[in-house]
Q: What sequence folds into this?
């Protein structure tokens, strides 16, 4: 989230699209009810189903799964056409004025430079024109035909309300009604907040869905504002922490990059990470990259990381492919190229697409280790449960070791919520039986592996033997020790860069925050964005002062928010060019003539003059980006792409299937279905009674929603002879499931491109372990294809068929 | 009186006491008790309480149901899906509150509303269950408005079920006593709010003095009027003297849309006539069984009275009034269907 959960109460308008906050985030949703009750805020819901969020909304519109880009581009078109644009914001705080190279273009659903053989674009023309002065050229009048603003206008021009209805099924009158509501927030003193979740990410173009809304929010001037922002509702209590700590196959902690194979040494690696400002006087904060990188390497390898050995750069693994995401891992596993799989806090047999393939892949492992507090289907993938898990146990030779771990209440530690708050929690209960902390498990494995390397050597033992491991009990690192390591400390005394006589931080002391990190090896920090969480003031994550001096729900001394305890990102954009708040009644920060002051930590140097330095300091432009240059594989603007399994062809290019640059493994192509065979659109979601696949172990949750069901419209039920509460079978080429039918008025047939489209909704949760009735998950049917940029599986749009059926045999 | 006793039950504050307190809700606070005409007057008058359920804020998450199960340590069965989000499928002696879901399309606009109502005991000012109950002291009403079932005095006759205009109490098939929401009298008596209100993530359920809750409801109604709900209203039905569980209904002129919430609930005339305050105990006892039978033919809810229960009831009445003619205590003939 750019903002915090509590800030949602400051909004004028909430749009929930690509999510179902009331259902999946009921506790956070309280801030929506606060905004409605105390500010008179309105709530819009756009979703294929009339959801629990829709039940308390002011306005609802349906949409076909996987068509959000067309909807959002249509919305941007309407804002431009009706002058609902926050002009001063757009001109100064976005890259609208930047001039783009002549080669960039779009036709027939594709951008320039597409190569169908490699399924990729040549992106060299997707960039700014750089002037003789080394800076990007701009036209602040927005008149230049090649400026981003005019290219955007041309790009969205085809998304008329009629075209939006044709693609998305959202009736024009409803679309226009919502446009009027959203358009009001173009006023400088009105804001809209966007709350989204997996309904936007789980598509083969998920990143572009989110960009579409981010662009709309920028055009309306709603980023950086109290009650505004792009607010990703994360799907686990600590999934934000997972991302921040770099648990992605292509990332290091703090959004540093895992090196590529081509980056043979540290100098080569850094050569593409200089982040020189693209406009005069801009901050381009990533210029500090070397400080964060060297401090990370010092945290990893301590004294073994020295300038002479490139800070042990060669210890880092190098990627020979863009990433080893989970889809790729299971593809490799299914090819017999993975022997051992550690599966920690993860239940891929129900969570990842094409369950048949997951089962097949797990069956080819020599050893599977699961680390989980509860029995998971994955750890029991080899066990026959009749129709619910129809495997031939005798033919599976995979050895499975289950290591029982702990639940959050059995341990101290921090959880990072969607709003970037690191909230410390305390152990409330002793783990049962032989359950052990995950940190203990990992430490014990590490110590044994290190001992093997010591005794037996190996091809390259150095990264293991030299790993920095400074814990009082090396077999059991404590949460306190780990948190202090993440914050970082001075290894030798750190002096002021401008005044070498001035000590910034003494050797051995915790650094105050990442501003004290250095690239000369004098500091270490495990994750620079978290630096400040546990400094010499102590554990800031444990702070529990609920004072709210601003009255805006900032709670600055409640826990600690990264970065630097800042609660609203890009908050300099909440003020005009003179540093005066766009809305004085909701002041976040303001310029007092000398520095930035106010209710939040400024997201800019406190003394940076408002006329000089742009608010988006992490970008080399100093502005936000309506045009994302060559940073996304599927285009600098979002363009409509159908799901890989779609009921209708792409209106711009009937030959184009799905996202043209998304990775598709050859083995999966034959399993893709067409709308002739599988006429109905399947989509997946969670229920508020459950937490993922876990709570079926809890009797109460099982009582409240005991049995797997699918939802379908009254019309489709009549067509297929399906009765409410009866059994149905849903299938496609990848699998088949049986469920109870919930026939509902909350799903209506949509008319898309003249064709009636029926949606079948399928909740996740059920499997064959736990208290609840045995059941299935939608992942038996979902496609094994991910987002073109980050490989999140396309679980929200796929094709199925459905028929009345009988109860499955356990 | 211990020093460490809760203050008189009034309202749930945002930060209720965390220390252990002795309950402060006792016999001296009882203003009505079933089949007890000579109830001593209460020793004090507590402030009237109410739980307010704001349907416009309710997201149907069932946290209230979950909290109710946990707090009351009930054990509803893990059932099946019957084509609805409602689970369990009905109130029971193990499920005191239930989210009821109704999909309603406005015939004029065609717009869909998913009407979600938390069902459970309304804690009537004039409780029909208490009036219908033949067992002395099995149902009591406190001066703060809470209507509570005293299970060890319940004879399992089920007359309270028939007497309830909201169809709330349910007979336990194993324990043969009737159970319902207590408004968490055990929590309220130590300064806490009901478990459901505590768990509600959107504060759709709030709890406090009845006056405060009415004032809060008025604010909510103003907000709803501004959102096109011209008929938004507080549900505090006068036919039962008002209730201590109230709703804010966005479609306030059509309460029945909310899964059959009665528009004008009243205690049946039979029950009123039978056990009205002016009736003598003797009349009540004599009329008891016959009225039970009549009631039973009026209501179709379960009303099983075992022979054992009947004997026990007779004994209780005899204890108070002396011998009565057994013949007059006829057994209801038709067993109700669940």
A:
């Amino acid at each position: 989230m750019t903002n915090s959960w509590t800030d949602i109460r400051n909004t004028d308008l909430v749009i929930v699209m690509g999510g179902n906050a009331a259902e999946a985030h009921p506790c956070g949703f309280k801030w929506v009810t606060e905004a409605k009750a105390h500010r008179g805020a309105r709530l819009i819901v756009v979703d294929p189903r009339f959801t629990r969020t829709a039940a308390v909304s002011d306005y609802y519109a349906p949409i076909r799964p996987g068509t959000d880009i067309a909807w959002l581009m249509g919305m941007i078109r309407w804002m431009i056409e009706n002058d609902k644009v926050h002009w001063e914001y757009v001109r100064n705080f976005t890259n609208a004025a930047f001039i783009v190279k002549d080669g960039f273009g779009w036709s027939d659903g594709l951008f320039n430079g597409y190569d169908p053989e490699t399924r990729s674009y040549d992106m060299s023309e997707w960039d700014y024109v750089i002037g003789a002065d080394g800076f990007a050229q701009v036209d602040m009048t927005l008149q230049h035909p090649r400026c981003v603003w005019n290219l955007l206008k041309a790009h969205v021009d085809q998304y008329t309300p009629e075209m939006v209805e044709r693609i998305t099924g959202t009736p024009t009158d409803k679309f226009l009604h919502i446009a009027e509501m959203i358009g009001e927030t173009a006023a400088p003193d009105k804001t809209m907040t966007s709350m989204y979740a997996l309904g936007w990410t789980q598509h083969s173009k998920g990143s572009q869905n989110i960009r579409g809304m981010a662009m709309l929010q920028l055009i309306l001037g709603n980023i950086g504002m109290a009650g505004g922002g792009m607010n990703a509702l994360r799907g686990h209590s600590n999934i934000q922490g997972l991302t921040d700590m770099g648990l992605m196959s292509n990332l290091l902690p703090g959004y540093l990059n895992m090196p590529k194979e081509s980056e043979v040494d540290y100098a080569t690696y850094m050569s593409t990470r200089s982040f020189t400002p693209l406009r005069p006087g801009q901050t381009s904060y990533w210029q500090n990259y070397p400080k964060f990188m060297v401090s990370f390497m010092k945290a990893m390898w301590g004294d073994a990381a020295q300038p002479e050995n490139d800070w042990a750069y060669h210890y880092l693994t190098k990627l020979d492919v863009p990433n080893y995401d989970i889809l790729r891992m299971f593809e490799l596993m299914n090819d017999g190229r993975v022997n051992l799989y550690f599966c920690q806090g993860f239940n891929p047999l129900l969570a990842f697409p094409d369950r048949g393939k997951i089962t097949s892949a797990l069956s080819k492992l020599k050893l599977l280790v699961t680390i989980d507090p509860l029995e998971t289907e994955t750890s029991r993938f080899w066990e026959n449960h009749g129709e619910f898990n129809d495997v031939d146990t005798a033919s599976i030779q995979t050895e499975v070791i289950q290591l029982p771990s702990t639940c959050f209440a059995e341990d101290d530690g921090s959880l990072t919520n969607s709003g970037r708050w690191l909230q410390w929690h305390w152990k409330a209960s002793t783990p049962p039986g032989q359950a052990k902390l995950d940190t203990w498990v990992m430490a014990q494995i590490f110590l044994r592996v290190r001992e093997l390397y010591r005794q037996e050597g190996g091809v390259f033992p150095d990264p293991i033997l030299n790993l920095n491991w400074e814990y009082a009990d090396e077999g059991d690192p404590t949460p306190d020790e780990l948190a202090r390591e993440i914050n970082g400390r001075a290894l030798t005394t750190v002096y002021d860069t401008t005044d070498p006589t001035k000590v910034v931080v003494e050797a051995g002391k915790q650094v105050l925050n990442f501003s004290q990190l250095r690239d000369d090896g004098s500091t270490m920090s495990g994750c620079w964005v978290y630096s400040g969480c546990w400094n010499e003031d102590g554990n800031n994550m444990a702070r529990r002062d609920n004072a709210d001096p601003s009255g805006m729900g900032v709670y600055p001394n409640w826990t600690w928010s990264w970065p630097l305890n800042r609660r609203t990102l890009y908050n300099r954009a909440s003020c005009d060019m003179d540093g005066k708040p766009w809305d004085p009644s909701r002041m976040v920060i303001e310029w007092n003539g000398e520095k930035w002051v106010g209710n939040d930590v400024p997201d800019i140097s406190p003394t940076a003059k408002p006329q000089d330095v742009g608010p988006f300091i992490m970008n080399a432009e100093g502005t936000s980006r309506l045009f994302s240059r060559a940073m996304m594989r599927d285009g600098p603007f979002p363009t409509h792409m159908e799901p890989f399994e779609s009921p209708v062809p792409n209106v711009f290019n009937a030959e184009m299937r799905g996202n043209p640059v998304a990775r598709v493994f050859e083995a999966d192509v034959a399993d893709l279905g067409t709308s002739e065979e599988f006429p109905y659109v399947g989509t997946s979601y969670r229920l508020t009674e459950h937490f993922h696949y876990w709570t079926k172990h809890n009797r109460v949750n099982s009582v409240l929603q005991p049995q797997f069901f699918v939802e379908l419209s009254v019309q489709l039920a009549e067509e297929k002879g399906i009765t409410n509460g009866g059994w149905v079978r849903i299938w496609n080429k990848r699998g088949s499931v049986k469920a109870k039918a919930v026939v509902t008025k909350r799903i209506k047939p949509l008319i898309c491109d003249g064709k009636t489209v029926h949606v079948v909704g399928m909740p996740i949760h059920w499997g064959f372990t736990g208290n609840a009735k045995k059941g299935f998950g939608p992942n038996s049917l979902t496609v094994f294809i991910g987002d073109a940029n980050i490989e999140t599986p396309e679980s929200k749009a796929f094709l199925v068929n459905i028929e009345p059926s009988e109860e499955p045999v356990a | 009186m211990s020093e460490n006793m809760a203050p008189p039950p009034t309202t749930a504050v945002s930060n209720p006491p965390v220390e252990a307190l002795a309950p402060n809700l006792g016999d001296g606070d009882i203003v009505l008790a079933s089949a007890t005409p000579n109830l001593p007057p209460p020793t004090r008058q507590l402030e009237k309480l109410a739980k307010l359920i704001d349907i416009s804020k309710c997201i149907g998450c069932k946290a209230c149901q979950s909290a109710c199960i946990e707090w009351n340590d009930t054990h509803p069965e893990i059932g099946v899906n019957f084509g609805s989000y409602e689970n369990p499928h009905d109130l029971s002696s193990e499920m005191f509150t239930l989210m009821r879901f109704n999909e309603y399309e406005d015939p004029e606009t065609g717009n869909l509303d998913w009407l979600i109502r938390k069902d459970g005991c309304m804690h009537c000012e004039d409780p029909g269950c208490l009036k219908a109950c033949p067992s002395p002291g099995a149902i009591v009403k406190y001066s703060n408005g809470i209507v509570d079932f005293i299970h060890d005095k319940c004879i399992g006759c089920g007359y309270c079920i028939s007497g309830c205009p909201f169809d709330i109490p349910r007979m336990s098939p194993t324990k043969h006593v009737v159970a319902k929401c207590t408004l968490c009298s055990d929590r309220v008596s130590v300064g806490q709010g009901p478990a459901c209100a505590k768990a509600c993530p959107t504060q759709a359920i709030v709890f406090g003095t009845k006056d405060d809750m009415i004032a809060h409801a008025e604010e909510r109604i103003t907000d709803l009027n501004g959102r096109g709900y011209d008929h938004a209203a507080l549900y505090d039905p006068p036919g039962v003297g008002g209730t201590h569980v109230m709703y804010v209904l966005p479609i306030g002129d059509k309460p029945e849309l909310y899964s059959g919430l009665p528009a004008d609930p009243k205690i049946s005339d039979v029950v009123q006539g039978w056990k009205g305050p002016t009736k003598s105990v003797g009349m009540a006892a004599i009329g008891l069984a016959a009225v039970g039978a009549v009631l039973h033919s009026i209501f179709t809810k379960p009303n099983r009275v075992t022979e054992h229960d009947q004997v026990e009831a007779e004994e209780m009445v005899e204890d108070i009034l002396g011998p009565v003619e057994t013949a007059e205590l006829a057994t209801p003939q038709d067993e109700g269907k669940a």
Summary: The mean pLDDT of chain A is 97. Chain A touches chain B through 46 residues (CB under 8 Å). The first helix of chain A runs from residue 21 to 24. The radius of gyration of chain A is 26 Å.
